UniProtKB/TrEMBL annotation:
Residues 179-544 form the Asparagine synthetase domain. It comes from Streptomyces fradiae ATCC 10745 = DSM 40063. This is asparagine synthase (glutamine-hydrolyzing). It catalyses: L-aspartate + L-glutamine + ATP + H2O = L-asparagine + L-glutamate + AMP + diphosphate + H(+). GO terms for biological process: asparagine biosynthetic process. Its EC number is 6.3.5.4. Pathway: Amino-acid biosynthesis; L-asparagine biosynthesis; L-asparagine from L-aspartate (L-Gln route): step 1/1. Pfam families: Asn_synthase (PF00733).
Amino acid sequence: MEQQNAAAVQELPRTRGEPTRTVFDGPCRLTVTGDCGASRDELAQALTAVASHDWMRLTNWPGSYWVSAHAPDGTRFIGGDLAGTRPVYYTRHEHGDPTWAVHLGDLVELTGAAADLELLVARLACGAQHWPHRTLYRGISLVPGGYGLVIARGEATVVDISGIRPAADLPAAAAAFGHVLTEAVQRPVRNAGVEVGADLSGGLDSATAVLLAAAVGPVRAVTYTDGHTSGEDASYAVRIAEHAGIPHEIAAGRDEHLPFRLDGVPDTDEPAADVVNWHMDRLYLAPVAGSPLHLTGHGGDVVLDASSAAWVGMIQQGEERAAKRHVASWARLRGLAPRPYWMELRQTAALGRAGVLLRAADALESAAPLTADGSSGWTWCRPGAAASWLTPYARVRAAAMLREAAGGEQPESADEAEQWAALRATGEAARTARALHAPIGVRPVYPFLDNQVVRAAFAVPASVRRGVVTYKPLLAAALPSLPDWLTSRRTKGSFASQRIAGLERHRFALAQLIEDSPLVAAGLIDPAAARRTLLEAARGQSAAPIAELHQLIAACQWLTGRARSGPAGAREAAC
């Protein structure tokens, strides 16, 4: 039997515009909430998977959704998506069964959990990937992307539901990726039946989504430009819209739309990277506000590309000669000296994850100043500009957390570790953006983060997805029908100039935001050090720390909003 939006089932939230469906057979029950592409019959047939605890099967349908299952033996399963755009959080009271929620604010309100400021600064300095199971609230855990939550006999455990199977036939794997990506884009467009919105930055990812969507339904594309964005990207956006034959709205931003303007932005349950672009987003997304869905290319960099961790992974797997050829070609094409770059990657491979984390912990605990070392190769952890803002106490605490993480269970293969870290970071950015998009009437869809798209991409070795001569080579192999002038593009616009202009315009307000932050009050951040980095970046003296400044500013804004309205306000905005 199937029950549409059943009042009796209150396990998963009914967020605005997202249906909940339940199927059951006696005590065996399955509920999905969100955009789940399973048919009625497929949901009913999946009750056998629930009874046999085949949890991964419940994540194989297209779309973006939460799933909750009750097996006849009393075991419960709760899962989101691989990227974590549909998160699951859990905690345990001193007495009683584990409690879970899909909105972090629900558990914060229930438990009264305090913000974990020490973890926050450790994440700023060292990266969030070392603590994938921890939230920024003490006592509340996150089910990491690629895992689901199982509750049985009063105990909560996380189980692997990633389901990545390495491809034996690369041409067939590329074709399979193209098929699932096409379906991930086109299915929601067909279901909408009316005009949908779509980002069109001019890059490969948004262009691919627009072209695939326009083949099956009406699409209105939107693009943001100003005096600091890439003219080449804008010209590609115009060409793509003309090629697709769709309406195209181009917003011309002014100084008041530059990044890092924070007045009037909505509050969120977690720090949201997109908060610094909210005024820009509100401007260029206005023509598609109220559309049933809005397609984005968010996540394309993760599934279509790979970092130099791919070559570290090759070295770890004994493919040193092939890795060296790749590295030498890549470095020469970009004007880098191959040997120092190669030696850096080899050292990373030799140290391994634990060795790199322990070395980073030693550096944090030392009295020496911490600055970016100019290295360009991938590594598990490289404390940079953000680490230089930490007080001595905060450095000791961050080092202790790194040492603990070094002994934890995480992938030891560099390419696997990096692709999951990148996927989870991308998913976090997507889920925290929901509270920011809701007030402007936009419901984003992320086809590149669809579970089956992620699985098909990660089945292709990272070394194959890491282009040496071409950019994102998987895309042309997977979708040969795309225009050659698009897939052969080797350049990508930079937002560095725009972000520097935003920092310069808002530098005094941002410096005050940092100064007034609980991170300073708690003795974790040296405001003078952070302010010095901010002013240097605003003058254009160094673009390297801008990403870390972005994270710090988003964190300080989150803490300010949390103090003002509490987590419940952010949750209501997201629903």
